[in-house]
Specification:
The chain is of the alpha+beta class. The chain has two domains: about 100 residues, Glutamine synthetase, N-terminal domain (Ubiquitin-like (UB roll)); about 100 residues, Creatine Kinase, Chain A, domain 2, CATH 3.30.590.10.
């Protein structure tokens, strides 16, 4: 059976990096190998020398394609194996190795805003919504917009075995938030048991190589999860939950801005 492996990485776009991905077909049971891409279109290389390397560091079930298909998160490297300048995860590797004997816990919070056309979802055409207040953790169709997408996203994260810990509507119509973690070895996808082959690879040292994929279990008529070959390790690229991010929505007045351009820029923050 062929497995679709979606390789995902962070590009070099500034000031805000973007996600990129491409699909590699693997044989059943194969470990996702080091792969390559053309960095000239991702702001990670010049056209005359554009080869860049994708090194897998994390895999989990693909909840969109389903089946045995997987998502593969990657670090970006130069062709000589050195971390690319856009690879900020590599900056944490010395710290992770220094404190490898300690159990680290991480968590993140991500806010985002849905758009419909050129306006945030839930904004009336040609105008602005009522003052903030009823939207944060609100209920009802007059205050909440996009819940069906948010619920689907939550289900997909759970299906992938990710340590998503909550969702809530935010202070503006169409604005939402989700939290991941605190996540550590006990919440790692390697222990979720939701799919064979889940893994969280440790930060790579100079001698590190991707772990080999264990053999699939013998067919017994029921699905079984494969046991990873090495103990799970937390991903060392998230912020600690003890330092909550600053609120991005600027509340200069008790009402929404009357400038369409200002409202759009603020809601995208």
């Amino acid at each position: 059976m062929s497995i679709k492996a979606e390789y995902i990485w962070i590009d070099g776009t500034e000031p805000t990096a973007l996600l990129r991905s491409k699909t590699k077909i693997l044989a059943d049971g194969a470990t996702p190998p080091v792969w390559g891409f053309d960095g000239s279109s991702t702001n990670q290389a010049e056209g005359h020398s554009s080869d860049r390397v994708l090194r897998p560091v994390f895999t989990c079930p693909d909840p969109i394609r389903g089946g045995e298909h997987i998502l593969v998160l990657c670090e970006v490297e130069e062709i000589d194996g050195q971390a690319h300048s856009s690879n900020t995860r590599a900056l944490l590797r010395p710290i992770a190795e220094r404190y490898a004997d300690q159990e680290s816990w991480f968590g993140i919070e991500q806010e985002y805003t849905f758009f419909k056309g050129s306006r945030p979802l839930g904004f009336p055409e040609g105008g602005f919504p009522a003052p903030q207040g009823p939207y944060y953790c609100g209920v009802g169709a007059d205050a909440i917009f996009g819940r069906e997408i948010v619920e689907l996203h939550l289900d997909r994260c759970l299906a992938a075995g990710l340590a998503i810990s909550g969702i809530n509507a935010e202070v503006m119509p169409g604005q939402w938030e989700f939290q991941v973690g605190p996540a550590g070895p006990s919440r790692s996808p390697t222990t979720c048991g939701s799919r064979a082959g889940c893994s969280t690879a440790p930060p790579r040292s100079s001698a590190w190589r991707p772990p080999s994929t264990p053999s699939p279990p013998a067919a017994t008529g029921t699905a079984q999860a494969r046991t990873p070959t090495s103990p799970p390790r937390p991903c060392a690229r998230a912020t600690t939950p003890s330092s909550p991010p600053a609120r991005r929505w600027v509340r200069a007045t008790s009402r929404w801005s009357t400038s369409p351009s200002t409202a759009r820029a603020s809601s995208r923050a």
